[in-house]
Amino acid sequence: MSRILELRKKAGKQKKRVVLPEGEDARVVKAAGFIADEGIADILLLGNTEEIKSLAEKEKVSLDKVEIIDPSLCENKKDIFNRYYELRKHKGITPEEAEKTVLENLVYYGAVMTNMGLADGFVAGACHTTSTVARAAIQCLKIDKNIGTVSSSFLMEMINSPFGENGLFSYGDCAIIPYPKSRQLAGIAIATSDLFEKLFNVKPRVALLSYSTKGSAKSDSVNNVREALVKIRAKRPDIIIDGELQLDAAIVPEVAARKCPGSVVEGKANVLIFPNLDAGNISYKLTQRLSNSRAVGPIIQGLDKPCSDLSRGCSWEDVVDTAAVTAIRAQG
After folding, report:
1. Which CATH architecture has domain 3-142+311-330?
2. Which residues pair with 207 in a beta bridge?
3. Structure pTM?
């Protein structure tokens, strides 16, 4: 069985409350019904009640176990508005502007619910851009001081592949930071590594990727990767990590033996950290499309509570798996 699919069972062992703010999207409605029926998580679905029920009927989905919340009619909506105002008043926002933002973009509503503990995490992005989801998360949740960087990762699973963890990888960062400095690259690597281990109970072997392997080329970007490695090893000596490594040296043991003998990763990396967003985003999409692999994410990292983005091209199954990951992260 797919190890990503197995996460659904893991999530259901200690059910958490996940809010889905895009309740007027058919894929999200279908996913909400499935998640609730399968006992993966308790689902809070935001949107116009009649629109949601109409979509459910059209999709032949039961929402009997789903809590539907119409934010415009919700009893505690004033508390939601006030909390967002308190979070953003230092930026000059007025109470009226806070109410307008939260009601007109329910991703913010879901993010504030997570901030207040009304939900354990939120998942959005089926019909919103990554920048919108990330902005709501950053504005409404606190940065994890142990990481210090908000970033993202993707879970990638390829069938019948000898690479990584028998085809299982985590890629970071593929959605948030365009050109991470060494400090940010270190935060990305630490967060991605820790999440991979938490989800799959597998020891991460992390490669900081580059077009250079151990000094085969020189440039500012290569130096940035090297500096990140120094920072990571100083902060987290427990992580098995090496860099800078070309992709083949990172995942093919025979190539690693020639290009970087003595590397602690040994050509067996299962966590790949990309030097910039161009490389990360292109690589995850290339992997997904050409190898027909399963991709879950972008999972937003570096905040004090879990949340995840979705690709606007996601399927309803993608929503299910992303919600499962979010629920597991909320388990502590």
Report:
1. 3-Layer(aba) Sandwich (3.40)
2. 242, 272
3. 0.91
